[in-house]
Structure formats: C-alpha cells, structure tokens
Write a structure and sequence with these properties.
By secondary structure, the chain is mainly β. The protein is built from no helices and 11 strands. Strand 3 and strand 4 form a beta hairpin. It is globular and about 35 Å long. The relative contact order is 0.16.
C-alpha cells in the first residue's frame, strides 16, 4: 500500500489499493474493517464492517478498495481479488424508507464523495457527510 506522510498530512494517491477500517471499533462489531458481502435480505452486494467473520452465512468478497477521480470529486471502488473486476461503491436506499440507506457495489451509479479535513473536538473526530 502506498501511503505517504508529510508533516501532519496523510496523502493517499488515486488508485492505491486500500484496506479500510475505522480508527475506533464500533461496539456493535467484532472488527472495524470494511468488507464487501452479499446481503441476503436485499439480494445486493453491500459494504459493511466486521470483516468476513462478522457476516456468517453470507458470501463475502476478498479484495481492496481504492479512490478514483470522479466528476467533481472522487468515488470509492472495490476490486475483487484475482478477477480484474472493479465495482463502484454506490448508495442504495431501501423502498418505502424501511431498511435505511446502504453502501452497495454497483456498475451504474457511483456515490460522488468529497474529502474535507476533519476537526477534533474534545478528542472526538468530527466531519461533515
């Protein structure tokens, strides 16, 4: 993985293969590592946390994420190991507002993202989504 640190700033180059995980593990998960898996309830490949061990009975995909230039900002991409297949990370909104919003793997509608510098208040990282 190519990560370069200059002073207090961290630079990740576009296209760099990444494993993503939260700095602090949520209490509801065994791991904070991102994983791609098939959500059997909605029959879509989604992005979640917990690693493969956090998704028993569900198909998981090994691979890496990367950041790519997209429109006016960036998009996240997931590349499946050994297949040469890379899929955009999109956003899936459940019908009728039930089931919430999910990040899913898609070929058609990437979720456009912009990176901003996060600020730390009272030891907690704050950012705008």
């Amino acid at each position: 993985m190519n990560v370069f640190v200059f002073g207090k700033y961290l630079y990740i180059h576009v296209g760099t293969p990444l494993e993503i995980e939260f700095a602090e593990k949520p209490y509801c998960a065994e791991s904070s590592k991102w994983v791609a898996f098939v959500d059997n309830e909605i029959q879509k490949a989604c992005v979640g946390i917990g690693g493969p061990e956090g998704h028993p009975g569900q198909q998981t995909f090994s691979g890496t994420f990367s950041i790519q230039k997209y429109k006016f900002g960036y998009k996240l991409v997931f590349c499946i190991t050994g297949s040469g297949t890379c899929l955009d990370i999109g956003r899936f909104d459940a019908k009728n507002g039930e089931g919430g919003r999910r990040l899913n793997l898609t070929e058609h509608e990437a979720f456009d993202i912009v990176f901003i510098e996060a600020s730390k208040v009272d030891g907690i990282i704050k950012s705008v989504v």
